Sequence to fold (321 residues):
Amino acid sequence: MPWRIRKSFKIFAAGSSLRKRVAYSLAIVRLILVPVIFLAVYYLFVMGRIVDRIVNVDAPAAKLAEQASIEMLEARRAARNYALFRDPEYLQTNQKSLTSVRQILVRIRDLEPDDETIVQQGLEAVTLYQQRFAVAVSTMAESGQEPVERIREAVLAYQKDLDDLVKAARHERRAQLIRELRTRVGSFDTRITEAIHVGSSALRQVTPDLRASSEQTLQLASELEKRNWARVQLDHQQARQLIHRAEWGLSIVSAIALVFSVWVSLILPRQVIQPLVSLKEAVDHAATGNYEVEFELHGGGEVVELAKSVQNLTSLLRRKP
Fold:
């Protein structure tokens, strides 16, 4: 009869079944990725809101304010041309530009409710300008005479000044000549306006108020433009800060997730596979013909039940002659 050695095997398994433990392991592995995915989605959502505000609110409002200034300048140019030529087409151009200014201001108010006060002031300034220009038009209609002679004299005087400047240019430096030319060119509109106002005291009284209301509209439009471009810059700064926080946040969470996944990969396989390895060693030992096998069982589940079955089998084989 061959010599037989009794050997004991420890088989420790958790109380839950092997299927549940594998399912738990897969669930934990998936849960590791949840913080990373959540932070990525969160930062993408916040960045999307910032970009949407820049593209659809702040930048369009700034461009609209700039367009309002352009339309107001066009209205002033048309008013000046009407005073010179008394052409009704310039009246239509003036009214069309003022209507555009109103529509633009309303659109800015819809985009930026915080600018409602400034927009309302701008609308009131446009209304005041329109009323004062109507008074100026009425005054010019009552005078009934076009200031052609006074305008001609103003043009001749302006031409003489330019001729004198050109004659004296030989004795002046180029930079000084350019400054003089700019000054003279800028004074042309002033001379024409003064020539128109000479014969009409009523028109002289209306013109300063008309200019003041138009300047107020331009100042308010400029203020709206500055405020909205400032908002664009603030949104850009917030976007840069968000990118910086996202880089740090995702790096930290990814590092924690990596460490946790390494720990899980070391612990969970040992709990799942180690009982099966011990059971395989016991079966291999019994396969050599040595049925003196004892099991020290701990826990429960499929592995423990299998170990009990192997233990019963070896006990039965030991009792056979």
Summary: Residues 1-5 have pLDDT under 50 and may be disordered. Residues 201-287 form the longest helix (87 residues). The CA atoms of residues 243 and 258 lie 22 Å apart. The two ends are 11 Å apart (CA to CA).
